[in-house]
Amino acid sequence: MKNNKQRVLIFDTTLRDGEQSPGASLNHREKLEIAHQLAAMKVDIIEAGFPIASPDDFRAVKEIAGTVKGPVIAGLARCLNKDIQRCAEAVAPAKKPRIHVFLATSAIHREFKLKKAQHEIVKQAVASIKYARRFCTDVEFSPEDASRTEPDFLAQVLEAAIDAGAGTINIPDTVGYAIPSEFGDLIAYLHDEVPNIGDAIISVHCHNDLGLAVANSLIAVQNGARQIECTINGLGERAGNCSLEEVVMAMKTRSDLFSTVATGINTKMLHQASRLVSRLTGLTVQRNKAIVGANAFAHEAGVHQDGMLKERTTYEIMRPTDIGIDDTELVLGKHSGRHAFKHQLSKLGVHLDKEELENAFQQFIKLADKKKHVYDDDLLAIAQEQMSEMAEAFVIDYLHVAAGTGTVPTATVRLKKGSLVIQDAACGDGPVDAALKTIDRITEIQGQLLDFSLQAITVGKDAMGEVSVRVAFGDRTISAKSASTDIVEASARAYLSCVNRLLSDMADEKKSTRKKKAKK
Ligand code: KIV
Ligand code: ZN
C-alpha cells in the first residue's frame, strides 16, 4: 500500500445483510451482477449470502465463488455443523474462500434466545470455529450483539475464538444501539485486553438504528479496527447497515484524521455501484442521501452558487468525479453503432452475453428513434430490462391503454410465457391500475400494490420515467423497478417483475421440498 498506510479492509455484505432489507430480494443472476461490480470496485471481501438459508442463496454463493475473481468470497453460518458444511460447500470454488460463523453472546440473547450459560457459548463458538477450520483456513467469528455483551465476557469469548483459529473477529452492533464514544472505547478495550488480539484482525459491523453506523465504524478504525462491514446504499435489516460509500468517502475526504490508514476502494465506481444496487433491489436512494443521493452535489442557494463559482472548495468537500459522476458523460444517439453501445455499457460495468447484448442494442435503437439523446441511465435501464427478461417467466408482448377525461380507463395486455400467449382486458381507476388488474387476471395472481413511485431518471420532456413498486403477495413483499419513456409500460413491467420473482421463489421452494422428501 502507498505511503506505508495500513489497509482498512472493506467487507461488503450487500448480498447478505443488505438483501435482508424488507422487499430487497435479489435472484442469483442479479447477485452475480452486483458481485462483479463489487470486485471491479476493489472490495476486499464479498459476503455473498447465507447458504443454509435457501437453495437460491446457496446457488448464488456458489456461483459467485466460482466466477468472481479478486476478493475473498465469504458465506455466513450459524455455529452449527450443518450450516458450516453447507457454507463450506458453497464457498469452496473460490480462490480465497471464507467461512463466517456467528453466535450471540449478550445476556439478553443468552437468556431469551439461546437459553445457554456463558461457558456453553464459549464451548459452542470454539467447537464451530475448529470445525470450520477443517474446511477453510480463513474463518471469521462474530459474537452477535457484541455491543450489549458484558465487555469482560466478550474479551474471554474472543480470546478463545482466536485460539480456536478465527483470523478475523467481528464486533457487531447488531441492534444499532451503541453511541460512538462507547463503541470506540469498546474497541480500544478489546484491543488492549484480549491477550492474543495481535493474531486476528478486528472487524466491526454496525447497524444504523440510531443513524450512527458510519460514525461508529469510523471511531472503531481510530481505535484499532482494520475491517469494516458495510453495504452499498446502507441497505440492511431495519434501518440498514453502515453505508459503504459514506464510510469510504469519509476516510478519504478526512485523510487528515485518518492519515495512517486507507481503503483500497476505487471510489470512482461508487456512484455506478449505488445505481446498480438500487435498480436491482428496487429500493430507491433518497435524494438527499450522503454521497450518492441525487442532491448530494447540487447547490441550490444563490449564495452557495456564487461561492462555488468563485472557488469550488467554499462549499464542496468532494468532487462529483471522485465518486464517478462523470462531467463528460458520453451521450449516444441513433447514429451510434454497436461498438459505441458495447463500449459504453462495459464502461458502466454491465456484463451481458452475446444474445442479451444484441437484444439490448435493438431496444437502444428503438429508444434512440424516440428520443434524441440516450444517456447512461437510459442504457442501464435497457441493460437491466434485458437481464431480468432472461430470467423472467412472463414477458409483456403487447400493452394498450385507453384513458382520458370522461373515459373509463381500460387496458389490453398480452403476456407470453414460453410458447403460451394470453391476452385479456380490464378496467381500472386509471391507466396504471387497469394495466395491473389485467396482469392479475392473466397470471391469476393477486398482488397488492403497497408503494408506487415515479422518478424521471434522465433529462428532457422525453426522459425515461423510472417506476419503483413494492407489492405484497400474502405475507411476502417484493420490490422492483422498471424504466421506459412510457410510464404505464414501466409500471406494468415493474409489477410483472414482482410477479415473476414470486413465481421463481415458489418454484425454488417446491424444488427444495421435493429434494428434502427424496432424501427422507
Ligand atoms: O448484525 C449482526 O449481528 C450480523 C451478524 C451475523 C454479523 O449480521
Ligand atoms: Zn447485521
Compute the number of helices: 16
Number of strands: 16
The top-level CATH class of the largest domain is: Alpha Beta
| Lateral strand order in the biggest sheet | 2-3-4-5-6-7-8-9
Instruction: Specify the biggest β-sheet.
Output: 8 strands, parallel, barrel
Query: Low-confidence spans: pLDDT under 50, at least 5 residues?
Result: none
Which kinds of small molecule does this entry bind, naming each only once? 3-methyl-2-oxobutanoic acid, zinc ion
Give the proportion of residues in helices. 40-55%
* CATH homologous superfamily grouping of the largest domain: Aldolase class I
Concise structural overview:
By secondary structure, the protein is an alpha/beta fold. The chain is 42% helix and 19% strand. It has an 8-stranded parallel barrel with strand order 2-3-4-5-6-7-8-9, surrounded by 7 helices. Strands 11-12-13 form a 3-stranded antiparallel sheet. It has a 3-stranded antiparallel sheet with strand order 14-15-16.
